Give the backbone structure.
Amino acid sequence: MSEILDALNWRYAVKKFNADKKVSKEDIETILSAVRLAPSSYGIQPLKILVVENPELRNELRSFAYDQSQISDASCLLVLCAYNEITESIIEGMIQFTAAANGQDISELSEFQKHLMTAILPMEKMEMKKWNDHQVYISLGHLLQTCAHLRIDSIPMEGFKSEEFDRILGLTEKNLHSVVLCPIGYRSEEDARQHSNKARRSLEDLVEFIS
Ligand SMILES: Cc1cc2nc3c(=O)[nH]c(=O)nc-3n(C[C@H](O)[C@H](O)[C@H](O)COP(=O)(O)O)c2cc1C
């Protein structure tokens, strides 16, 4: 089997982490760098990743995540957040770093900038929020896959009260809201789920070739 399928079969949604085993700084940096490389619509990256290590804070957050032990027992808790709103100055900042990446003058991107302003700024609040949330899930895919490749365990989690997380982490004032969680670390030997086979729809059912 290919290396990539080996890694993806190895990955599973961990229910119980080994609370004593920590992910190295170097691996965390690799994982975050992979998230940084995720594509996003127009390249805006309307998101932020919080790396929560503080044990007291994680215990508090756990009480708003149906007491799921992974929140406090993983090596660290990643909170994937999306912008509430994309503003003119966010678009300007993105144009600046996009131009800088290729040694361009920002004037070369003025048509693109104008297009972004007319396409994005008039969006309804809810539409914009939903659009930003979609970009977060693409990053989640990069995160899960990179962890699997490094044989670092993870679990994507939507079972939490995002308004409470936003309040505790002070996200609204930072133009952010929490979208999905991803504790990462190492599986406990006691986690029986690691021995289950993958339950998935067949490829024939999932895929249709149209020629
Ligand atoms: C977006 C998302 C949210 C999830 N939320 C939770 C959660 O809150 N708690 C949990 O135990 N599992 C959660 N899961 C894990 C899924 O139940 C799990 O990925 C699925 O059953 C497939 O199993 P596998 O990942 O082990 O292959 C979530 C998965 C995804 C993709």
Remarks:
- The beta strands are 47-52, 76-83, 153-154, 176-185.
- The radius of gyration is 19 Å.
- The chain has a mean pLDDT of 97.
- Residues 3-86+121-206 form a domain with the NADH Oxidase fold (CATH 3.40.109.10).
